[in-house]
Specification:
By secondary structure, the chain is of the alpha+beta class. It has 12 helices and 23 strands. Strand 22 and strand 23 form a beta hairpin.
């Protein structure tokens, strides 16, 4: 762990971030970080407990003179997205994140950094540990499994929290105050197929798409970034029609909330078509790279001769797969009519796996309008069912409806303007924040979301801005000083 990172200001926050990043914390495997957080609270002699699903709650009394203020719940999630570059040797299950400083940014060596949402967790830890920060009565809510289903927020029962105000520290631009977010639903298409033997007189190739930026499938979906699954499918579909290729294997993407950066496939063609296929492959590669030259300057599409597999897909199923994937919508589907420049509805074709007679396609569909979310999900269902797939929906979670008249919003806007001499941007985001889910069991809680500037979340290019963390910390402390008094006090 970089000593230089620990020496950054505010040291109390960066040290807690470094401590946290030493603990492996993948989604659905949070046992170690849950215990880490339980030990942290108990060592401070604060009320510390976990609920039935594993969320950790730590409470701290108000400082002197602040006991008449409303209870504040400070909320961040413990898990992080685990992604690494293909050439990075790293075991997320046992290794801590290796950080370094690059100018005004903290980055990780070939992996995701965990600033999403580790910076929020670290800030809350620093507040809990502090002895000289003025604050109202606070409770920390550290949720689990935000990145792959939000099951921690979904499992939190009503009546557990004391807070009348919730500060969610999980946004990624330090000049934004978030008052709404998108909901989401997983769309999964599956199908079995029969494999057939490869006859003599064939040669095989491995095709690799890599070097894409990737990123957050909500926050970055509007940027025109390449999707490795769609690029690979385009290549295979084109060559299926032209050279009657036979697909043996496809493996693309990983997590549903990450725009796919890489995909590989193995295909077989008649040996007599070898030269023409290679020539035309280069031409198609040039076309695709040219289309994405602005947003994906490091895109690589490689063709390498490989050992001929013994089996490939049945031709009809292959055609249904490639046509179904070609028709499946990816990217922005609709923009919001009520909030300027906000993506309303989108889909990420996140995962494609074709192997050993089984096909599985995973998508994450998002929308700030629940009916629009389901409309696009049904569009995808129809697309894949026409191609002979069995389609299931799962992991649905609600959006968070904006409240422009929020009392805590007024506090945040006022403090931002007085501290930084400019107006903040009050926005809704296309990511899935836990506020919408928490609001179902705590409908009267006044919620807001903000955070430091983080770029490239959910990808190995993830980075957090050092100066922004300083700004965020200053802002958070000022907000806590201005929490409204209890109504009946």
């Amino acid at each position: 762990m970089s000593i230089e990172v620990r020496n950054l200001e505010p040291q109390t926050v960066w040290n807690k971030f470094a401590d946290l990043n030493a603990v492996p914390r993948p989604s659905k495997k949070e046992e170690r970080v849950i215990q880490f957080m339980m030990d942290f609270g108990k060592e401070l002699h604060l009320e510390t407990f976990k609920d039935e699903v594993g969320n950790v709650i730590i409470r701290k009394p108000a400082t002197s003179g602040m006991g008449n203020r409303k209870w504040v719940t400070l909320q961040s999630h413990l898990d992080m997205v685990h992604q690494k570059n293909n050439d990075t040797v790293f075991d997320f299950d046992i290794q801590g994140i290796e950080m370094y400083i690059d100018g005004d940014w903290v980055k990780a060596k070939g992996t995701t950094l965990g600033a999403d949402n580790g910076m929020g967790v670290a800030a809350i830890m620093a507040l809990l540990e502090s002895s000289d920060i003025v604050h109202p009565p606070i409770e920390a809510l550290f949720t689990i499994d935000e990145e792959t289903g939000m099951t921690g927020a979904m499992g939190l029962q009503g009546g557990v929290l004391k807070g009348e105000i919730l500060l969610n520290l999980d946004t990624e631009e330090d000049d934004e105050i978030d008052i709404g977010c998108a909901g989401g639903i997983d769309v999964t298409a599956e199908k079995n197929y029969k494999e057939k033997e490869v006859s003599t007189g064939h040669v095989a190739y491995s095709i690799t798409v890599k070097g894409l930026n990737g990123g957050h499938s909500g926050m970055d979906i509007h940027k025109g970034l390449g999707n490795a699954n769609k690029i690979m499918n385009r290549i295979l579909h084109y060559n299926m029609a032209k050279y009657h290729i036979q697909v043996a294997h496809i493996d693309g993407g990983s997590l549903r909330n990450a725009i796919p950066r890489e995909s590989t496939s193995v295909i077989v063609i008649d040996e007599f078509q070898k030269l023409k296929f290679e020539e035309n492959f280069e031409l198609l590669t040039t076309v695709i790279k040219n289309e994405l030259r602005v947003t994906e300057q490091n895109l690589e599409i490689n063709l390498i001769s490989t050992e001929t597999p013994t089996k490939v897909m049945d031709g009809l199923v292959q055609e249904e797969l490639l046509k179904g994937l070609y028709a499946a919508h990816n990217g922005v589907y609709a923009m919001s009519a009520s909030i300027p420049d906000l993506v309303e509805t989108s889909n990420n074709v996140a995962r494609v796996l074709v192997k050993d007679g089984k096909i599985k396609i995973g998508c994450l569909t998002r929308s700030s309008v629940n009916s629009a979310k389901m409309d696009l999900a049904e569009t995808l269902r129809a697309t894949f069912e026409l191609a002979g797939f069995v389609v299931t929906f799962g992991g649905s979670y609600p959006g968070w409806n904006p409240n422009p008249d929020s009392e805590i919003l007024k506090v945040l806007k006022s403090r931002y303007e007085s501290l930084f001499n400019e107006k903040p941007r009050v926005v809704a985001c296309h990511a899935g924040l836990e506020c919408g889910i928490l609001g179902e069991n705590y409908p009267d809680m006044d919620m807001i979301s903000f955070g430091p500037t983080i770029h490239g979340a959910h990808s190995p290019d993830e980075r957090v801005q050092i100066s922004s963390v300083q700004k965020f910390w200053k802002y958070l402390l000022a907000i806590l000083e201005d929490i409204p008094e209890i109504s009946n006090a």
